[in-house]
Amino acid sequence: MPNLFIAPCVLALFGASGDLALRKLIPALYRLESARLLHADTRILALAREEGMDAEAHFALIETRLQEHLASEEWAPDVWERFRGRLAFLSFDFSQADAYRTLSDLAAGDLPLVAYFATPASVYGAICQHLVDAGLGDRTRVVLEKPIGHDLESSRLINDAVACCFPESRIYRIDHYLGKETVQNLIALRFANSLFETQWNQNHISHVEITVAEKVGIEGRWGYFDQAGQLRDMVQNHLLQLLCLIAMDPPSDLVADSIRDEKVKVLKALEPISSEQLAARVVRGQYSAGYSNGKAVPGYLEEAKANRASTTETFVALRVDIRNWRWAGVPFYLRTGKRMPQKLSQIIVHFKEPPHYLFAPEQRPLLSNRLIIRLQPDEGITLHVMTKDQGLGKGMRLRTVPLLLNFSETFHTERVPDAYERLLLEVMQGNQNLFVRRDEVEHAWKWCDQLSAGWEQLGDAPRAYPAGSWGPGAAVALIARDGRSWYDDL
Ligand code: NDP
User: Which of 141, 162, 469, 480 stands 20 to 30 A from 216 (CA)?
Assistant: First the structure.
């Protein structure tokens, strides 16, 4: 049965033979097909620059890569047949104006055209102009991948080029973290539970930790990554978005712009970090040789195609302060790196100790509630509460007990949907809630640019940390200076 709730569209996937398209977007579309969440009339146009490759060869490539990326139980020949029936393929260079006439023929009809740019950001503007020139402008929504530029100035140029062709209401900027189930749940957790919202301020919260750790190294993307570094690749977007969702005031409703307005207020309130404060507030690291999964792995500078003199950071830890009434005096410690001991994304809200302490002094370090919001792996939420240890003869001994909400167990879901599945559905529906507005991107760049400029001014080189560790020792010192430690050190 066709799904009547999901609107039909023509999805034009630019860069259909690239890494993102083959590893994430096409598997996400296949899973939507499998769940019957694509409208019967939806068509998918795979657009790629692949000389000598025809549609059959491209579909064969898609089939092979799907089988690689899907779990074996997800692959079903009948789903593939349905999915393949929606696909069309066109090979052209996206700067080639006349090819857009063929694209226009392929996309004929009056369904909305969702133009997903899985390409370098440098070509976004040109594709937009060609879409408009081909007469497709009025029915098109454009989806832009991150990062948009490498600093404020370059992001403005890209955003200006896109804005010349499309209004903001038809521009969908992806930060795939916003599509994750747990990130969505943050809104429910904060604003549907008065228990938390009344405590959500500097009176009750001592500090917040946000960790986004990757176990992998550079995975063959050295050239791309070395131009960016961890600050631009992860902090400017994913970590600041998570910070905004934790720190923002309640929006008046769930309309996209109401939420985005609140996020922008947080970004505007981020305390600048001057070059004098840089050493105390920010740590840059670069992984050296070490171990991952018990195997020896090379350092960043020894990876294939590496420039041995690179000073690009693969790790950043920083203390961020927010200058507003709610968060005055509550540091947010952010940490993100490659070649960490585990793949982990989590937010930990540490509550303050009770104002008057009644128990044995040696138990005091245990005594604060923590709310752990786990994005991956094992998406879920845990609240650490203090209880009396059970049994006779133990006196009033305290024990931390986790109250655990594990999504897959609680909701009996076999699989938590991938962020891209949700984001693709939202853009098909024309819903902008989970996408980033231009001013958010630009405020985030402005704040990050001062850090890059400070590093450049000071000639600050990253500190080495062995692959398989939680980053340089200086990251431990960063939080220890405030009398705290990262949660994994507790
Ligand atoms: P890739 O280089 O693997 O893919 C980009 C694709 O775009 C390539 O197939 C490339 O073709 C094609 N392309 C580029 N310019 C043109 C052109 N003028 N005409 C036709 N085709 C063109 O990059 P990724 O897939 O890794 O990344 C795509 C986008 O997604 C980037 O903006 C990236 O920042 C973003 N992103 C990627 C993530 C990932 O995990 N890969 C994660 C988050 C964001 P050709 O090979 O011929 O150059």
Answer: 480
